[in-house]
Structure to design on (238 residues):
């Protein structure tokens, strides 16, 4: 049995009817929605992670490619988590670059917000930060594809954790008024995370841009602020 089929069989064993019914609704798979046609087996992320621990060493990149092409959302997630584990365990810089190149060549399969958010900063964000390759994220930020734009901004989570915030600001501004709510949420979320590390820079950003930000981005960004200050931003009193 191929590794693809082993993992598929294991996921089907872990499936529950409740999750199989709920996840397509939660991830907006209906006609005209952002994940139209995506298929779910019905497995929660912690159970997918357990499979990754069992299979990541056995999986070649050819195996990962086959798994990543699956019609099933959970299969694609397992493939991405295997990539991350290989990247984090590797001490070989050439192998790490190969894993990053593989990720970038397969962004068309990273086609929902959880697949983006659970994969990009631990692999691509870390690689770009450690190798001064932020041009990769800037290029993705200018893509016509929304998921690539989201990969770019969420990948800067690694930069934020390392105390580097300028790229987050640059990429948030680049797509500040993108048409899709999922980008508004991502931009607001990353700005909020930046604010936890550098409140002064965060507040200066908000004071300059909050009146032109989509409401969703603003609400996400200011969620953790003191309530009086939060209301001042919401009501335009700054």
């Amino acid at each position: 049995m191929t590794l693809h089929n082993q993992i598929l069989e294991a996921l089907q064993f872990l499936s529950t009817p409740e999750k199989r019914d709920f996840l397509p609704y939660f991830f907006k798979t209906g006609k005209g929605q952002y994940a139209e046609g995506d298929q779910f087996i019905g497995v929660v992320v912690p159970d997918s992670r357990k499979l990754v621990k069992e299979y990541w060493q056995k999986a070649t990149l050819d195996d990962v490619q086959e798994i990543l092409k699956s019609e099933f959302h959970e299969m694609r997630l397992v493939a991405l988590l295997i990539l991350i584990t290989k990247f984090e365990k590797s001490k070989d810089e050439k192998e790490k670059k190969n894993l990053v190149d593989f990720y970038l060549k397969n962004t068309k399969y990273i086609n929902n917000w959880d697949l983006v958010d659970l994969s990009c900063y631990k692999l691509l964000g870390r690689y770009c930060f450690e190798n001064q390759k932020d041009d990769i994220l800037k290029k993705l930020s200018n893509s016509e594809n929304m998921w690539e734009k989201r990969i770019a901004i969420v990948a800067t989570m690694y930069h934020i954790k390392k105390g580097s915030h300028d790229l987050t600001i640059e990429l948030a501004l680049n797509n500040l008024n993108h048409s899709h709510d999922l980008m508004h949420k991502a931009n607001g979320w990353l700005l909020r995370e930046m604010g936890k590390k550098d409140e002064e820079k965060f507040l200066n950003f908000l004071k300059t841009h909050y009146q032109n930000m989509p409401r969703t981005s603003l609400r996400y960004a200011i969620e953790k602020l003191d309530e009086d200050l939060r209301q001042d931003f919401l009501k335009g009193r700054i």
About this structure: The chain is about 70% helix and 0% strand. The radius of gyration is 19 Å. Residues 73-89 form the longest helix (17 residues).
